[in-house]
Amino acid sequence: MARDFVRTSSQWILTGSPSLSSQMSISAWVKQTTTQSGGYPNGYQIICRQINGPPTEINYAFFLRDGINLQWTTATSTYAGFVAGITSDTNWHHYAVAINWSAGTYSISQDQTVTTGSFTPSTPQTSASYVTNIGRLGGSSANEYINGQIAELAIWNAKISDDEIRSLADKFRPSSVRPQSLVCYWPLVRDLKEIRAGNTMTNNGTTVAVHPPIYAA
């Protein structure tokens, strides 16, 4: 049975941010309206980005651009990012990233293909004024919105395992995967509630469409 979800194409959602420590995972289903190119707008497909909000939050951006990317701001205002090759089409795909900043390890995936890697540990910059944008880089330019659709967006304050990532890609609901570490969950189904922590959400013109079924367990 198909479910509804929020489409963000020159539309976006502003919401509260999760409390994170030295680890984080993000999972989402994404359908690009136009196949990806190297430049704007569809070459920089923002899934979610934290830019300003409550204390002890981490500034990051999870997006598609010639691959799957996670970038974050370090204490020296530099950025680090990871890229894995992806299939660029207009079908639904599951994307996820799981990272341990203090250990310097990550997993990043499209569907059930998981790529692992390592990096020199770096401490993300924190701020007292972070919020999370869904489907938007952060500015008001038309080039800063995802050209596509987002559903079942979730964030954990832990580095979930590669098998857990594959379970999510197999259409398991985020609330059934490492639930004790799940800090934010936006099903984007019929309404705009964040159902884990109760964060408020501001809707900026999003509309409703249909996405593949997600299973409860």
Low-confidence regions = none
Give me the strand/helix succession: EEEEEEEEEEEEEEHEEE
Measured on Cα atoms, how large is the radius of gyration? 16 Å
Nearest-integer average pLDDT: 77
Number of helices: 1
Quick one: how many beta strands? 17
Q: Descriptors for this entry?
A:
eight-stranded antiparallel β-sheet; seven-stranded antiparallel β-sheet; 17 strands; mainly beta; 43% strand; globular; 1 helix
Structure description:
Strand 6 and strand 7 (68-73) form a beta hairpin. The protein has one helix spanning 162-169, and strands at 3-9, 12-15, 23-32, 45-50, 57-58, 60-64, 68-73, 79-82, 92-100, 105-110, 113-118, 126-127, 132-134, 147-156, 182-186, 201-204, 207-211. By secondary structure, the chain is mainly beta. It has one domain: Jelly Rolls (Sandwich). It is globular. Strands 1, 3, 9, 10, 11, 14, 15 and 17 form an 8-stranded antiparallel β-sheet that branches. The chain has a 7-stranded antiparallel β-sheet with strand order 8-7-6-4-13-2-16, with no helix packed on it.
